[in-house]
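name: query_chain
kind: protein
chains: 1
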Amino acid sequence: MPAGGSDSNFLKSDITSSNRVKLSRPIDVKTALFAVIGDPVAHSLSPVMHNTSFAHSSYNGVYVALRVTDPAGAVAGIRALGLAGASVTIPHKNAVVDYLDRLDPAAEAIGAVNTIVNQDGILIGYNTDGSGAVRALTEKTSLKRKCVTVIGAGGAAHAIGYAVAEQGAQVTIANRSAVRGKSLAGDLGANFMLLKEFTGDSCDVLINTTPAGMYPDTDVTPIDEAVLRPDMVVMDAVYNPLVTRLLRAAGRTGCITVSGADMFVYQGAAQFELWTGRPAPVNVMRMAVLSAL
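structure:
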């Protein structure tokens, strides 16, 4: 079956047997090694997503999670050991930038990297968070000339704010801290407001990039749910739980909702394509994540 096909029975069989497939594949000197580096990483679903995609695509690769407290040492290790690539998660997305050889334009503009590609010994940094979010959003709505409010001022807010602005959206950063929020808004050429001042007026698309509502604090929401309107598109970058309190409230209000799991899968699909040069089996990756959740 072609990658990205719709045979759900095949996909379910492929996913549930993925561990057996991975163990039966030969691991040899030609096996490409990948890792996610961060602290913490025990919760990461990237290994199951990428190992399943490698197995499905008959790609000779293995992906592991590595808890890292020394980003400089980790990048030196990637170089010395010849890892084919890596994912970078919190808190190292900014720190690794200084130790790479090159950055793609998006990663350079954002100042953060979530993907490293080892190209014949040259380590190149990319950021697929923003493109993953845009791909998930544009399945539901156009972003051109839309008013997009991004909640938060961290690395995810920067990547997503940059990417949606590139699509022609007018971005507003809404954050609890004025100092960080104004700084990010200045970098993006965006508007700024304190989060407590957000009323939903003139907001076409609302995106939460904070951990509010993430497991185990699932009863938390970043905003007063009364500000939601039926004509909004609401996306939550949190993917565990799949349906956060914010998305539940948005659904009850009649908003179009976008799951953080979609963003996670699409950023992972972009990584797969950068590493392998092959089309990503997006549906297989989605089934792996949903099954794990």
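note: DSSP finds eleven helices and twelve strands in the chain.
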